[in-house]
Amino acid sequence: MGILDDYNQNDDAGGADPADARRRRSRLERDIVIAESDLKKVLRERTDLEIEQKRLKKQEERIRVERDALDRKLKKTEDDQRLLEEEIKSLKKKLKTLPV
């Protein structure tokens, strides 16, 4: 655990020397500043990822809507094809029944 390990090692020294106590305090303050900086970096990265996630969700929804519209259009086209094929069959039957 980095920071805590350093603190515990220095705490075992007894703390009799005021200069040693100042060095430990300074080291801990420096470690705190570094950890806070790392936290800010992680928070910025998290914010960026959340923004990207929202963008992708919107894009996914747009694609879903477009796909649904395409599915409906394809279904209509297939229905039209089937009706036309049936009409052609019916007309061919009528043609065969006509005298030559």
Give a description of the structure.
By secondary structure, the chain is mainly alpha-helical.
Quickly give the structural class.
mainly alpha
Intertermini distance: 99 Å
Tally of structural domains: 1
Kindly state the mean pLDDT as a whole number? 90
Strand runs, count: 0
Poorly predicted regions: none
Encode the helix/strand succession as letters. Answer: HH
Helix count, DSSP H or I runs of 4 or more residues: 2
Radius of gyration: 38 Å
Largest sheet: none
Indicate the percent of residues in helices.
over 70%
Shape field = rod-shaped
Kindly estimate the percentage of residues that lie in beta strands according to DSSP: under 5%
List keywords for this structure.
mainly alpha; rod-shaped; 2 helices; 100 residues; 90% helix
Summarize the structure.
This protein has about 100 residues and is mainly α.
Task: Reconstruct the topology from this structure.
Elements: H1 2-11, H2 18-97
